[in-house]
Amino acid sequence: MKKRVGALVAITGAVSTAIVAFPQSAAAQTDASPYGFSVQVSLSPKALQKLTTLSESVAVNSFYYGKSATKPTRADIKRAHAEGREPDQIEMAGDLVTLPAAGGVAGLPGRNLDATEVAAVGSNPLRVNVNVFSARKAAQDNLLDCDLFEDELQLARAKPVIIGCRLIGER
């Protein structure tokens, strides 16, 4: 009996590790925050065929940022230059959602934002950058050339962000 319990614990641990290691699907991410929004991803017929043939997925990644409400200090400026970013820009984590090869709607909940970083932006608009690419589960390199979105979060929340994708090199 102890062997079975031990095996069950090992299996449960492996499943828990797998769940943490991989991003949730769009359908599993249902708790929206004040920073959440949706992205509608569509693929060209050639891109859809290639991804389906390879059993590849589509990844949707968001990145939030905003201008600091306070003037940066000399130390802030020096650190920002070393990190390759603007001294007055606050960069924040975003979401990574995986869609099936056919694309579809990705719900980006915005749950990973740090309240301190959001507060540091103050009344300046919070901005978001959205990138879409092949998930690299079946192919080592990205296969998709997708539209980009980079604008105020308020605009992204107003209606779904539309991103079109085609194969890299497709005309």
UniProtKB/TrEMBL annotation:
Protein name per its UniProtKB record: Uncharacterized protein
Keyword Signal attached: yes
Domain of life: Bacteria
Keywords: Signal
Signal sequence region: 1-28
Keyword Signal: yes
